[in-house]
Every structure is written in C-alpha cells, then in structure tokens.
Specification:
The complex is a heterodimer of chains A (about 300) and B (about 550). Chain A is an all-alpha fold and about 300 residues long. The longest helix of chain A is centred in the N-terminal third of the chain and has 37 residues. The model of chain A has no long low-confidence stretch (mean pLDDT about 85). Chain B is an alpha+beta fold and about 550 residues long. Chain B has a domain of about 220 residues: Dipeptide-binding Protein, Domain 3 (Dipeptide-binding Protein, domain 3, Roll). Classes of the chains: A mainly alpha (about 300), B alpha+beta (about 550).
Chain lengths: ~300, ~550
C-alpha cells in the first residue's frame, strides 16, 4: 500500500494506507474474509498440506457414497474423494481469479490513465475500442473463444489458466478502463497537479507521482470485488464445457459434473461441497473488497 | 449408418423386458371411451386418444428420407411394408407380402396380399413397390436412405455416393398386379430381414402424381398403407388417426395418437410424471441415478408406469486409425480387458445398459453371446499384456461428443484404465456430435486414442452389425479395419442359401474381430420409457419406437 501514500502534505500525517489498516483491523468482517482468503490461497499453493489423498485416483466402487469418517465430504460420481477434489480445485480457480483481476487492473488502469490524462483523440479512440468490447457480454465472448480454441486435456495447467485469463481480460478490461479514466479525469484538475506542472515536472512524472496514486483507490476496490466474480465466471465456463479441460481439477468442472436434477435428488453432497467452496471464496474476496473500499474512502466512513 | 441421431435419441436400460407380456393380450376388460374406434375386427379394441413425445423430423416425412428417430417414430406407425418386425424381438413376419420366395438368394419372387389398401382407398399393387424403390434409390431424388437399395441388380454407383445414378434398377420387374421379382447383384441371404425397413415402403399413385420439389406436398401428409394415417403435421404436433380401412394383421389400438413436439426431453419427462403427456420414449439420464424415475413413475395404486426394452443399439470405442501406437494388437486387447464393464454400467447407468459380450446386439438375428473374449474384465492379464506391449506413451485420449451425456462413462473408463494399467488417460469432448463425426470422417491427425461410435441397426440382422462397419472400405469403417479373411467370410455368408448357414459364417467373421480388436465393445443399449396413468400398458419395439397396436388404456 505504500505507493498510495500521498506526498503532498508537509506535516506528514499518517499515510492513507496506515489509516485504512487502522479502520480495517477493527472490523470483524475483515478478519473473517482475511482468514478465508488465506485459507483458500494456502489450499491453492499447497493442497497436499490439507489432504493426503490424490484427487485423480478414483474408484468407481465408491461412486456417490455419502460422507463418512474415511472421506469427510463423501465420494463423487466417479468415486473420487470430494474433499481432495475440493482442496485441489482451489488452485485453478484462484489462479484464474487473481491473474485475471491483476491483468485487468493493469491493462485497464494503464489505458484508462492514458485516456484520462491525454484526452482528445487518444481518449476518443480508446473509449470507442472499450465500448466495442464492453458491448460483448463477457460470458458470451468467452464461450465463443472457448469453442473456437478448445483446450486439450494434454495442455498443462499454466497453458489453460493463461488462455482463460486472456479471454476474461479481453472482455473484462473495459470495466477497469472506464473506472480509471473517470478517476484520472477527476484528479487531473486538482491544484497539486497544476502545481507540479507549473514547477516543470514532465507529464510522465506528473502522472506517476501525482495523478495515479490519487486515482488508484477505486481501481483497487473494484478489482478486489471483481476477483470473486472472475472465479465464478471461470466456474461457469468450465460448467459449460468451454473452460478448463477435465484433466484439471477445478470447482467449476466438479459442479458441472454433479448438476442434474436426478443427481441432486440422490447425491446432493456431490454438488454441495465444491459449490460451497466456490461460494465462500467468492464471498471472501467480495467482502474483502468492500472492507477495503470502506477503509480507503473517507466519504463512506 | 453409424451413430445417426436415431441412435442418439435412444436412451438406455436393463436387460429385462419389464412390460408385462400378458397385458397385451385380448380380453382386457378395459373401459372404452365413448369415442371408441370403428373397430376393424381386431382383438384389441381400446380406443381413446394418447399424446406422445415427439421431436421435429430432420427431413421430409418420406420413408426413403427418414433415418432418424423423430420422423421414424411417426412413419413406423403409418407405413406398411412387405415385412413387419414383431414388437417383442424384431423377428420378421410377412405383412403386405403373402410370400417372398427364392432358391438361390439372388432371384426373389414377391407375392402381395390381395386387397391391401392405401389410406386414399387405392390398392397396394406390385408397381407401387417397384416404382417407389426405383425413386428412392435414384440420385436424382436425393434420398438419405438410397443406399438401402444397393443390393438390387442395376444399382449403379460408380462414385460411391450411395445412390443409383440411373433412374431405375434392372433387378426389379413387375410380373402382374400382385407379383414382382427382385434380382440381387450378389447373393443376399438376409434380404427378407432387410425388407421391413421403412425405406422399402410402397407409395400410392398420389405420390407419383405429386410434381412438387422433393415430393414436398405429398410429404406433408403422406399417404401410406399402415394402421395409422397422418392427418395433421405442423411445427407443434403430428396427429395420427387410426385408419378405418386398414387391411393388415397389425392394427392399432388407440383411435388417435398425437406426437407433441418437445425440444427438451426433461420437459417431456416432467409432463409424463405430471400426467400431462401420455408417453415418452426418453428418460433423462440424470433421472436414472438411484432409479429416481422409477419412483416418479408409479400410479397411486402402486402399479408401475415405466418400462424398459432392449434395443438394437451397441456402443463401441474405436481404436483410432491415425494412432500408430495402437497398431499393436496386444495393447488394444489390454485396453479392452483392463476395465470392468459391469461396474461402469452399474455406477454410471444404474444398470440401464448391458455390458457387451460381442459386436452384435442380442436383438439381432444371428446374435451369439460371448464372442468378445477381450471384453471380460481381467486386470492381471490386461496389465501383463500392457507391459509386454511396452505401454502407451503420452496421454491416451477418449473422444466423445459433449452433447450426448457421454462424459461420465468415458471418465469412468479412463479412471479404471489409469488404476488398472497405470496409463495416462483423459477424456476429450467435442462441442457436439457433428464436430466429432467430421473429425472422424477426416481422420484428423490429432484424433489419437479412441473415439466413440454408436450403431443403431437398420434391420435386425447380424450382417448389419458387421458389414457396414468392419468390411474393408465400408462406409462406417471408422477404424480403417481391413482383414481379407473377414471380408471373404462376409461374401460367403451373403451367398449362403439359408439364413442359418449365413449366420454361422457371420459369427465366424465376428470371431475374427475378437482376434484383431478393431474396436472395443462397450454395452448394448436399452431404452427406458414412461407413460401416464391413463395407459395400462404399452410395448416398445427393439427400434425404440412404440407399438401402438399394443397400447392398453386404463
């Protein structure tokens, strides 16, 4: 957060970051969300810490068995341990969520800053391009790309994740672009920016030192909230069969395989656990995003 | 024809014909509604009206142009052919024909029953068959089923398009009004069994008088000689009225059958459960789990309103023709031996399919059990063969189409191969059936591993499960299988003078498949069906269509 620290004040008050941290740590919701996020990120990094079972070793003899001492979440249709699959499924989902949110924030932020600062023709062109992508629903675009360039089961995890991330960023960046553009336009007329200019700072320095730090808050907040929705979109794509291939354990795949009225009637646990993990992760990131927003935005205090 | 939509539409189930056989007999003291049928003197007079799940026919409603279940369901009830298949076991019995005789399996004489009537009041004569067949075979008519006429002498197809370049076939000749002769190009011992297929239906004079493109006007409400007449045909329903002047031995029972068009089989299923629809021929696969559908489809008095029927469909996985590693026969054997069909059918289909023991459906004439020795699960032998063959390098792919609900079983097979053989295995889905078929037809280079194939029989004969799929260069030989000994046995069998002798030779040919393993049999399909409380019993045929002559109303 240190880069958000504003350098205008002479009396060196507490930084915005420290201020926000003070607010956040007094809110129980922040701790709930943080613990969940840490838990799921830990699962994504080192799933073997949580379970000794292999999510890909399945025995049809256990098909659809209910939770028991040996398998606390029970077994799915193929006789795979649902707990192991839920733990291992975190990696693909969270990777997609984090990388998409990061890439969309970077791309949208960069272009938004350019459009907002330069204005004129650059703004017009970039905004129209963004409008074009904005007019294509993210899910529809992702389905089209997923059908045209289907992922093969032979593809390694990073290749699949990169493709999904690229697709989601391609149709998701106009959101962050618009946000950043508006935010930059709002900051640009401020006196401290004028002052920096008057003192002879070049445009690059004006932007990086004065405008961006002050315009960044909404982007951080929205990106955190979007992170959750990207995870949900990845699950939707996998559910529709155009996301991650079946060789990669992911929540979306497992939810898709367990759906169907007949399955839900007879073995609801197959759907319950991966769906609950997905919900909790998305919820955790969204709560975190809201808490960060509340903390960073003094108007909401 | 491999994996055509008819095969897809057929859902699956367990081995027993659970519908009570007794219920189809006469003497049912059923209450007959007031709009009871003008009985044609048959023993089952139930009357009433029923609604049936229908779907939009792919093509015009002409017998030579209908090869899928949506149009086939309707034409099955409206068309009469020379031969009729019994609803129980698809055994051929004479219908319009009084006799079909031959001494050499090449020259056939067909005599028709006198006084068999079309629904427009004209009589079914020899020329109605000969002209209809000539029209159906000709390339100029562009009919999908034209290849059915290929055995008839004079069928010339130099380009291999499956249709006759000439307008007529020299092998057909009218002798008199009730007699015609068929000459086949080569001996075709099972010709009689073939003649019951819809493509061989006769056409009335009104058909030939229709000058519209592709006989489109006639096809709206086709006139046939069967027990039901199509009286309405639009985008939402097809209505069949019992034909009062029906002259054959297989009359319908209910007065009126309405096929309501559904785009979603789940919706049709729910309507049957709620008694808003009387019959559905498809049960959604997720309802099979835990036998959910069997608990849904029970009357208030505890009697069941569901049934299952073995149908002439076999599912196989074909070893890819473009995968060099799979040229090794013992590797192919190991893969077939290395997973448990019984366990997969139980877990995935709730026993709604029967593990295959050969390449021919039990429904077909000439079926012999246990022809596939490599279909019996033996993990130890499989592992030994697999290791001796040097294993499979890379990820072994199982290709299925994503729109047919094949993911679950393919994944189960993969998991078992992983566990039992230690091979890397993954399921590869294509977005739809068409994409998979196109890839297979092109023998796409990335199509390694195995690909799914389903075969719905055209006619209930062992020959139909072998020749079109495994003969060298055959139209549906997806695995490019070629064995001269196999081809020779097919030729010999076709030339046999009796059906039994022919079947023995076909069975020897099937045994060769067990040695060479061009494909891996999975299971025989069964169809499940459900009906409303209005219906007491109904039979499904081995072709997954309903036999409306056996409907008994409550």
């Amino acid at each position: 957060m240190s880069e958000i620290v504003t350098t205008t004040a002479a009396e060196r008050p507490r930084s915005l970051g420290a201020d926000a941290w003070d607010v956040m740590r007094r809110r129980p919701l922040f701790w709930v969300a943080a613990v969940l996020v840490v838990l799921f990120v830990a699962m994504a990094i080192a799933p073997e810490l949580f379970t000794t079972k292999d999510p890909r070793s399945c025995d049809l003899a256990f098909s659809r068995q209910l939770p028991s001492a040996g398998a606390i979440f029970g077994y799915d249709f193929q006789g795979c341990d649902i707990f192991a699959r839920t733990v291992y499924g975190a990696r693909a989902s969270i990777l997609v969520g984090i990388f998409t949110a990061l890439a969309a924030a970077l791309l949208g932020g960069l272009l938004g800053t350019l459009a907002g600062y330069l204005g004129g023709a650059v703004d017009a062109v970039l905004s129209r391009i963004a409008d074009i992508f904005f007019s294509i629903p993210l899910l529809l675009g992702a389905i089209v790309v997923g059908s045209v360039v289907p992922l093969s089961p032979n593809s390694p995890l990073w290749r699949c994740v990169i493709q999904i991330v690229l697709v989601l960023v391609l149709f998701g960046w106009p959101n962050t672009f618009r946000l950043m553009r508006g935010s930059v336009m709002q900051v640009k007329p401020n006196e401290y920016v004028q002052a920096a200019r008057a003192l002879g700072a070049n445009p690059f320095r004006v932007t990086t030192s004065h405008i961006v730090p002050n315009a960044l808050t909404p982007l951080i907040v929205v990106s955190t909230i979007d992170l959750g929705s990207y995870i949900a979109t990845e699950a939707t794509l996998s559910f529709l069969g155009v996301g991650l291939p079946g060789t990669i354990v992911s929540w979306g795949r497992d939810i898709s395989a367990a759906s169907g009225i007949g399955y839900i009637r007879n073995a609801p646990h197959m759907l319950l656990f991966p769906a609950a993990a997905l919900c909790l992760t998305v919820l955790a990131f969204i709560i975190l995003g809201e808490v960060v927003r509340d903390a960073l935005d003094p108007k909401l205090r | 024809m491999l994996t055509r939509p008819r095969a897809l539409a057929a859902a699956a189930v367990s081995a027993l014909l659970l519908m009570s056989v007794a219920s189809c007999g006469s003497g049912d003291n059923t209450t007959t509604p007031t709009n009871s049928a003008a009985s044609t003197g048959n023993s089952v007079t139930s009357g009433g009206e029923i609604t049936v799940r229908g779907c939009t026919p792919q093509n015009s409603l002409l017998p030579p142009n209908t090869s899928e279940v949506c149009g086939g369901n309707v034409l099955d009830a409206s068309e009469a052919k020379l031969v009729h298949y019994t609803p129980d076991d698809a055994a051929p019995e004479l219908d319009v024909a009084a006799s079909i005789d031959t001494t050499d399996s090449v020259h056939w004489t067909v005599k028709l029953n006198d006084g068999y009537m079309f629904q427009d009041g004209t009589q079914v004569k020899a020329k109605n068959f000969v002209d209809a067949w000539n029209w159906g075979a000709a390339c100029s008519s562009a009919q999908l089923n034209s290849y059915f006429f290929a055995p008839i002498a004079g069928f010339t197809d130099p380009s291999g398009d499956g249709c006759n370049t000439a307008d007529t076939m020299s092998g057909l000749a009218v002798v008199d009004d009730l007699t015609f002769t068929i000459t086949t190009t080569s001996p075709t011992s099972n010709l009689v069994v073939r003649l019951g297929y819809t493509a061989f239906a006769p056409q009335p004079d009104a058909f030939f008088a229709d000058t519209s493109e592709g006989k489109a006007n006639f096809a709206k409400l086709p006139i046939a000689a069967g027990p039901y007449q199509i009286v309405k045909n639009d985008d939402t329903q097809m209505v069949l009225q019992k034909f009062a002047g029906y002259s054959g031995k297989f009359p319908g029972s209910v007065d009126k059958v309405t096929f309501k068009i559904y785009n979603d089989t789940s919706a049709a299923y729910n309507d049957v459960v709620a008694n808003n629809l009387d019959l559905t021929d498809v049960i959604p696969s997720d309802q099979l789990v835990g036998d959910a559908w069997k608990t849904d489809l029970v009357n208030s008095d505890g009697t069941n309103r569901w049934g299952t029927k073995d149908t002439g469909v076999i599912q196989v996985l074909t070893y890819s023709a473009v995968d060099a590693q799979l040229k090794n026969t013992s590797l192919r054997q190991a893969i077939s031996l290395g997973w448990d069909r019984a366990q997969v059918t139980k877990a995935v289909f709730n026993n709604a399919r029967t593990p295959a023991t050969g390449w021919v459906s039990p429904v077909a004439d000439g079926y012999k059990a246990d022809q596939c020795t490599n279909c019996v699960f033996d993990a130890a032998k499989a592992k030994q063969l697999y290791d001796a063959a040097g294993g499979y390098k890379g990820t072994f792919l199982i290709w299925v189409n994503g729109d047919g609900g094949h993911d679950a079983w393919a994944q189960a097979v993969c998991n078992q191969l992983k566990n039992n053989l230690g091979m890397e295995c993954a399921v590869q889905t294509t977005p739809d059936f068409k994409t998979l078929r196109n890839k297979i037809t092109k023998r796409d280079a990335d199509l390694t591993g195995m690909y799914r194939g389903g075969w719905q029989m055209d006619y209930p004969s062992i020959e139909n499960f072998l020749a079109p799929i495994y003969a060298t260069g055959a139209s549906s030989n997806d695995g490019d299988y070629s064995n001269p000994a196999f081809d020779q046995l097919l030729v010999d069998a076709a030339a046999a003078t009796t059906n039994d002798a022919a079947n023995k030779l076909y069975q020897q040919a099937e045994a060769l498949l067990d040695k060479d393993m061009p494909s891996m049999p999975l299971w025989y399909q069964q169809s499940q069906f459900g009906f409303s409380s209005k219906i007491k019993s109904v039979k499904m045929t081995p072709f997954s269509t309903f036999d409306f002559g056996s409907v008994v109303m409550n």
